[in-house]
User: Fold these one by one.
Assistant:
Number 1:
Amino acid sequence: MAGARTNTRRMHRLRDEFFDDGRRYDDDPATRQLSVCWICKGRIDYTAGAGTTPDSHHLDHRLPVSTHPELQEDPDNFEHAHKACNQERGTAAPTAGLGEEMPPWW
Ligand SMILES: [Zn+2]
């Protein structure tokens, strides 16, 4: 099977299109709620290039690629997110982030 989780040209184009969608929604107050960060519900800075600042746009996958590689290029699985929020979320990483680990019996 050809490369799961590779940065294909198709994925690159989908990312660009998704960013443009979000920017269009953000331009219009009537649709703005469709373009906010799905993690913190805050407004994303569409004037910055995608991924260039913490408040800039990132394409996030609602169902993580690590568990659903077949949905990596499925636009129905895309969500708008802040770069910072997406990175903090990671792939199902705990958000408390103080390094404590769950005991194995949890
Ligand atoms: Zn956010």
Number 2:
Amino acid sequence: MRYGGFTSCIALAHDGDEVPTLVLDAGTGIRHVSDLTGDNAFNGTILLTHLHWDHVHGLPFFTAGDREDARVSLWLPEQPGGANATEVLARGMSPPHFPIGPEGLRGDWSFSSMSPGRLRVEGFTVEAAEIPHKGGRTFGYRVSDGRSALAYLPDHCPTKFGPGADGWGEYHSAALELATGADVLVHDAQLRSDELASEACFGHAAAEYAVSLGQRAGARTVVLFHHRPDRTDDELDQLAEQFGSVSGPAVIVAAEGSVLKL
Ligand SMILES: [Zn+2]
Ligand SMILES: [Zn+2]
């Protein structure tokens, strides 16, 4: 009720701009992005971390992007076997699963695949790195405007690389490089450490890992993100309290509609 229940979507705007031009993931939260463009169409780029439903299902409900005067470049991780981006998206979004396919979205849309590495989009520099998750190639992103940097790892299963120093998962180089010195680290916190043993098989991280990664990487703020669907508001308040006085980064529990100014 208070933290919200829409799925992963982050919108970035340059300093002084109210209107975002870069969107990370297209979960149901992308509906809110249309509220930010006023009467105008969206003109920008969407980067998907991976293709799980909770990161893609908002796409056909992105009203600011689904109109004749919109211009949208969508990028997703290159798939093993080389299937093209439109075809991969259409596997989850086309009849009989949904009334239209990706090409049915109105406006000037392009669908492309990307490899790990650097991409320059909408005046931002993006570093993409492959990170462990479950069932499908998954990227984490680091986005910089040359002044501030945001690291985004919404779905991350570091225990895939071993237990690490504290049992919460390995602090591997891809995660550390994305998060190093970031002003904001938005990180998977679906689990608590006491749930890891029974639920790590779902491919997610514990909140304790997210905070510890932020500390190790020297991030200024850690945003605990991608809450477990049945987590209550009170439980999320407890999580905020648990990390309210850790040394190092400020820790924020993500809530729908939160705005951060960097
Ligand atoms: Zn996922
Ligand atoms: Zn997810």
Number 3:
Amino acid sequence: MAQPPRDTQVRRRILVADDEPHIRRVLETLLDSSGFDVDMVCDGAEALQRLQDASLRYDLVLTDLMMPERDGLDVLSGLAELEHRRGLPVVVLTAKGQDADRARAVALGAADFLTKPFSPKKLLGRILQILGDET
Ligand SMILES: [Mg+2]
């Protein structure tokens, strides 16, 4: 699917899943102030519910790896089964020392990953690059 031209008023929508309230606040502030619409959930189970709903439009998923109910790997593997989400990029946020999970995330198709604590500027740069907005 072609990306809309940058001069349109279509705001890109990002689904964010993280169980830590302060991370959600940081991400919401960062993404909202950068011109994205943000849909925020606390767990991978909620993220998968949203993704299964074909009426919801998303341009990118940003997911934590460690979450209580369904984790980031569950999001990736569940997403792979959704025909209507084919090609939707997923960026994974990991804590330090989760190298095995990082490798699994990449194997499951993660577009990119960042280690917490992440630099907001770096994260935004990666997102823009993945969405083809890099200047
Ligand atoms: Mg977590």
Number 4:
Amino acid sequence: MELKDIKEGEGKSFEGGAHVPHYKSFTDNIPISRMAPPAEVIIPLQQHVGASCDCLVEVGDKVEVGQKIGDSDAYISAPIHASVAGTVTAIEARPHSDGGEMDSVVIETDQEHSEFVPQETRDPDEMSVDELKEAIKEAGLAGMGGAAFPTYVNINTDQPVDTLILNGAECEPFLTCDHRLMVEKADELIAGAEILMRCIGAKKTYLGIETNKMDAIEVLATKLEDRDDFEIVPLAVKYPQGYKSYLIKTITGRDVPRGARSAALGCIVRNVGTTFAAYEAVVYGKPFIERIVTVSGPVVPEPGNYIVRLGTPAEHVLREVGVDPDELEGHKVIFGGPMTGLAQSDLRVPVVKNITGVLVLPPDMVREDVSYTDCVRCGLCVERCPNWLYPNQLSILAEHGIYEKLEDWDIWDCIECGICAYVCPADRPIVHFIKRAKPIVDEM
Ligand code: SF4
Ligand code: SF4
């Protein structure tokens, strides 16, 4: 089917999943804008999968915006940079959005000198593949779509890779940061994809975009109309369309065995935000110090897609969009999307590399876990689980502490997408049960 014949909502898809409400109209037409830096940033020394960074600064040090303040010798890691200029006032454990605390560098912001100004502009075509990879490594890039896997490790593969897939599905409700990026930064996104293609040796890039973003598809299709090495793949609007295995299967037809690395199948999947950040890292030498965050919800006076400095506390984000953090009784503040994001009880927690959204959900949109009942054996969760699991069985075993049986029911294959809980008529907090059981099973 020709791109011009695709209608909103249509497109290629995987089996399973669910159609969830979009709630994207709060922000999908709002251009990206910049949020003022907070008076103080809190920068955790681990914002990625892999080893935590060693701190490179001391209390009292003056730092420049973009200065490296944490690094590690471990292969799977990513350096951390100051997102503002200022003075280091503390290096200590601070609340983190994953729950608990994490060692963090606290910087009092020098508002006058916190704008990042590139020292040079580089032409990627005049850089070797090793130089491109090094720029991405030094910038501290990590997957911005949620997983936060270090980008350098991802692209430094010795597997033969023929295909780059750009993930522009953005299938979670409310989130529109990737959507706006594709509309407003299409040239830079394409240039970023060309950089990644050279790094991994891919000959073809597919852009997977859900068809509730027709303006993004149109902008990119116009820019790519003469290119054989790029192809836009319109995706049906379904959750979790952006999950890596489903994208690969939907776009290339290649099955991804459980636990397999995508590179072993000849594919690398990168989020569009990460691809844009790779462009900025290579061309401007810009470290990963800020990202686009969707700030949304029906009670947010000024929702939008904001460029937010890493380390910005949630309470600053909320105040900047007109929300009083002290007036949120009964509301939930969520980092990420409502399906996989994490509810935050401490609003001092900072935005980090993989935080796609800050949502404020009012009481009528919040499902309280206390109201669930026993499983009524309707089978809906089994029917919709995209990984062909038995969520009902997993939840019953976990709820009753029968942890030794959970591996028999493939608990490790649960991607915590939340569909089972979403469709459950008994309102069972299935993902909560599964998440709570995993560390216990891991210890057994
Ligand atoms: S069991 Fe896991 S993978 Fe399956 S629907 Fe539930 S959360 Fe998603
Ligand atoms: S959807 Fe809920 S009630 Fe239905 S089988 Fe699954 S756990 Fe049981």
